[in-house]
Amino acid sequence: MSFAKIALRNIPRRKLRNSLTVLGIVIGVALLVGVNIAAESSFVEFKNYIEAVGGKIDIVVTTVSGVPFEQRKVDASVAGLGYAQSAGRLGEGGLIRHGGQAKAVSVTGVDTVKDFEYRGYTFEGSGNLRRNDATISQRMSEDLDIKIGDYITVQMARGSTLSLHVVGIVKAKIATGYDVYMDLGFAQQKLGYVGRVTYAIVHVLDMSKVSEVRRILERNLGESYNVRAIKEQTIATWEGNLAGWRQGLTMISTVAVLVSVGLVLNTMYMNLGERTYEVGVLRAIGARRRDIFWLFFSETIFYALIGIAVGVFAGIGLARVLYSLTSIVSMFGAQSTGTLVIRPEYLISGGITGLLSTIIGGFIPSVSASRIGILNALKPGIRPPGKQRTAVRLLLAGIPLAAAGAYMSQSGLDFGMLDIVFLIIGLVMVMSGLLRVAEPLIESALSPFKAVGKLLSKNLGRNLRRAAITYAIIAVCVSFIVMMGGMRVGMMSSIGDTITEYFGADIIVFSGTSLPTTFSKSIVQIDPARIQAVTPAGTTLTKSGKTEIGIFSIDPDTFPLVFDRFEFSADTPKDVYNQLKNNLYSILLVEPLAQSLKVKVGDQISVRTPTGSVKLTVIGILRGFGLSFAQMGEVPMSQAAFISLRTANTYFVAPGRALRASIFYVKLRQSSDTNTVKNEIHDKYGETYDLQMITIDDLMTEVNDNVGQFFVVFDIIIYMAVISATGGIAATMLMTVNERRREIGMLRSQGMSSAHIFVLVLAEAVFLGLVGYVVGVVAGLFLLRGVTVLMSTTGLIVPFLVPWERLQFALLLAIATAIIGVAYPSLKATRVNLIEVLRYRG
């Protein structure tokens, strides 16, 4: 019989232990396969969603200043390209009255002959547009009960009124907003943009040439135009975000891989201990050392093959669960298709990882088996005690390892999982050494429990290697629970502080269409006793050179009353808002934008306007952590600049137009009830202007919910690793009970009850859980600190906060894991047959 066959024959002999080991491998493989499939499926679904929503619109062209332009400029740029076509559109917002309420609509003028996107729509009724004809979106038709043949009246943002006859309904595959389409020429005439469009759309027949066409347009149109490959940019941005998210999930998934390594290592050492005599017999009949090595190592390979085969299929099932929790399109209110994208490389990588983790766990025990001498194996009584694993040796080996792991985790560099491995192994060795030293103290502490306490104190020092591996398995799980709990608390605190600091408003009012900035005074007049100040925020996207800037038009009198917690650079004058008000040529920059433009207080920048360019003097620089990722409206704060309403009216509003805003920030007086004021604003103007409002409390609740949902997937992965750890404890305690069957029989024969035996085994398992918990908490706090340091190097500052609730939860989980894992071994220990076990002399 070959040694591989012997190994295969031995697997069914220890069904429960080997099943638990295979379960650990299955979970490790399933997590890696599931995470990759779920992430890829989510991205592919999002990509398809963006392409469906974008239709044939690959590139959008606008002017930097936002003023209308002549479409022929874009047509001339793509005229020589046989793989691109363009069309002009005129877009503006308006309000439609329905049931006494105002609803915001988007009105778009289209050329029904040239507009390739519009021609691709499916209509109920007609898609042909004459002077006052219109087609509307299906959602608008259903929500507002507008049918073909009805007439609608749209009040435009700039004051004009459109009376349109509905001739068709756009049947879109994906629900959009309230959209109204009308003839381009008629729209230009009614809205005062004769011969001009507000944006142009470009379709590229060959998707691989989208970037090329974008560069051609940028070169031909010059810096006065913004050329955006909308779909390409959106997909690239989310692909980058998903790459980081996938990396984080994969890192957390390695928890289960590390646990599976520990399980295999422990199982193989247990098997070696049971089959030492078998090794001696095989060596005595001529088996070589490499044959013995292969005997045990091939058993490890069989574990891997079974675990991989089951784990790959389990990973596909797990992917569906993770996919349902991480679908990107559901964030946009769309229905997820639930279609998995299963790539062979994900199955292969999961299988390879499972194989490698099993090989790592089984290699050292296999080497140890091959080094056993024949006499030592056949005559246990003459076996030398071997090298004593003294406390000093454990401490001397463990302290440098733990120190190295701690240093690596705090260095701000990415060492993969090496810092975690060093830290946990080192701490386990240190803890084992300390427990060896503290054996007399433990015995004294447990003395009140009489016989059970005496036996427990003695048993804790046995099988130190097996116990240490169990400590490590539990510690890995606990450390990641602590780390992820700290990240959750830190992120919530950081985001909450940012919202409180940079969004000083108690209520944010969004209007369905832009309103005059003077509307802020109307809001104050609703309840002056409760409302302290209201400030409008008009936004304009423009450029300074090649750098994009989001210009915020603010009222220097009311803005500092609402946003009263902004920090400024040291060289910013204290009367910065007064200067902004009185100096027509002044501008206030945020620090990230100032760094991008390489300017400081007192320097001048040239900013593009609807009529040309204007030079503005930088009178101050806003600074703070939140400016790196916060957003006001549609403008990232990292690109924000602030000018006065007077400056905006003078240079950033097209001739004949008035400055308008669609966001108003409301600051309440102390002790004023937020919901009361919110309801007052809604009752007065909500239905008139289709106002939507959110309070600071609503915003905080939404942020906390989103952060919590983000961490749900990580929690699932860690809990699956905890299941593996539970199996590890069960396997360890089963081996312990089997080894002590004769001892248990003698204790029973001396009068110890089954309850005492149960408590003895249970207490030993709980002790394993507690030691693993202590090691895991220390390691987890080091890892948490290391992650916050690493994130700070990328500009994302998350405070180091101890997650006390997670520490308590981890303690309960560690104890629960130990109790569940030892439940069956404890019951088995109480049911031993006295006569049978007293005959046992193994």
Fold and architecture overview:
The chain is of the alpha+beta class and 842 residues long. Helices cover 57% and strands 18% of the residues. The chain contains 28 helices and 22 strands. Strands 11, 12, 13, 14, 15, 16, 17, 20, 21 and 22 form a 10-stranded mixed beta sheet that branches. A 6-stranded mixed beta barrel has the order 2-3-8-5-7-6, surrounded by 4 helices. A hairpin with a 2-residue loop joins β2 (84-98) and β3 (101-110). The longest helix has 45 residues, at 230-274.
Keywords:
single chain; 10-stranded mixed beta sheet; 22 strands; elongated
Number of strands: 22
Helicity range of the residues? Answer: 55-70%
Tell me the quaternary state: single chain
Radius of gyration: 35 Å
Nutshell version of this structure?
The protein has 842 residues and is an alpha+beta fold. It is 57% helix and 18% strand. The chain has 28 helices and 22 strands.
Task: Map the helices and strands.
Layout: H1 3-10, H2 15-54, E1 59-63, H3 72-78, E2 84-98, E3 101-110, H4 116-119, E4 123-125, E5 133-137, H5 138-144, E6 151-156, E7 161-170, E8 179-183, H6 184-191, E9 199-204, H7 210-221, E10 225-228, H8 230-274, H9 276-284, H10 289-326, H11 344-370, H12 374-378, H13 391-410, H14 418-437, H15 439-445, H16 450-459, H17 464-502, E11 507-516, H18 519-524, E12 531-544, E13 547-554, H19 559-562, E14 567-568, H20 576-582, E15 586-590, H21 591-597, E16 604-609, E17 612-623, E18 631-632, E19 635-636, E20 640-644, H22 645-651, E21 660-668, H23 674-689, E22 692-695, H24 696-739, H25 741-749, H26 754-792, H27 804-830, H28 834-839
Parallel strand pairs: 3-8, 5-7, 13-20, 15-17
Antiparallel strand pairs: 1-9, 1-10, 2-3, 2-6, 2-9, 4-7, 5-8, 6-7, 11-21, 11-22, 12-13, 12-21, 14-17, 15-20, 16-17, 18-19
